[in-house]
């Protein structure tokens, strides 16, 4: 008899507007995919440009992505936001806020030392986060611990 271990679902909030950002996102997701079922918006929610290119009305494309991403946040167990850059992507910031308001545990990944504020991240971002990881080794160690805790007691995130 095979035992099925549930994996937590992670919503990955990040910028996704150029090839470099999408490649970075995929590398980070690949590093944690062993421990999470990851909702990666660029892959799972779609991109406006792709939908419009396929003939979807722009307004409908925006609404479709908005609806799918919000539903994924509602269904996730945890949110991880990429904080890299001088300022945080506004869509990712919204996704973090929505996740936080739903009571989801929220974490950050910040491998970039640049910050708009010289003393750290915006308090409205930092206050929503349980922890911020600065490299993939920290992130993967956390992912493994989180998965283990989740497998032992799925209601405790």
Helix-strand pattern:
EHEHHHEHEHEH
For the termini, the CA-CA separation is 28 Å
CATH class: Alpha Beta
Strand order of the largest sheet: 2-1-3-4-5
Instruction: Tell me which CATH architecture applies here.
Output: 3-Layer(aba) Sandwich
Unreliable sequence segments: none
* Backbone shape: globular
| Major β-sheet profile | 5 strands, parallel
**What's the number of extended β-strand segments?**
5
**What is the name of the CATH topology?**
Rossmann fold
How much is the radius of gyration in Å? 16 Å
| Helical coverage, percent range | 40-55%
Proportion of beta-strand residues:
5-15%
Structural class of the secondary structure composition? alpha/beta
Number of domains: 1
Number of helices: 7
What is the mean predicted local confidence, pLDDT? 91
Overview of this structure, please?
- There is one protein chain.
- The mean pLDDT is 91.
- The chain has one domain: 3-Layer(aba) Sandwich (Rossmann fold).
- By secondary structure, the chain is of the alpha/beta class.
- It starts with 8 loop residues before the first strand and ends in a 5-residue tail after the last helix.
- Strands 2-1-3-4-5 form a five-stranded parallel sheet, with helices on both faces.
- It has helices spanning 19-32, 41-45, 48-53, 58-75, 90-101, 123-126, 136-152; strands spanning 9-13, 37-39, 78-82, 106-109, 131-133.
- Helix 6 (123-126) links the parallel strand 4 (106-109) and strand 5 (131-133).
């Amino acid at each position: 008899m095979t035992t099925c271990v549930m994996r937590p679902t992670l919503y990955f909030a990040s910028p996704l507007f150029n090839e470099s950002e999408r490649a970075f996102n995929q590398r980070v997701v690949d590093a944690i995919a062993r421990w999470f079922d990851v909702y990666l918006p660029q892959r799972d929610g779609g991109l406006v440009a792709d939908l419009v290119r396929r003939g979807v009305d722009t307004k409908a494309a925006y609404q479709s992505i908005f609806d799918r991403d919000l539903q994924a946040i509602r269904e996730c167990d945890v949110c991880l936001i990429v904080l890299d850059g001088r300022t945080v992507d506004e869509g990712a910031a919204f996704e973090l806020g929505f996740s936080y308001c739903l009571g989801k545990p929220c974490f950050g990944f910040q491998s970039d030392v640049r910050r708009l504020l010289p003393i750290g991240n915006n308090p409205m971002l930092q206050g929503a986060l349980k922890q911020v990881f600065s490299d993939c080794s920290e992130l993967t160690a956390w992912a493994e611990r989180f998965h283990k805790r989740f497998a032992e007691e799925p209601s405790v995130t």
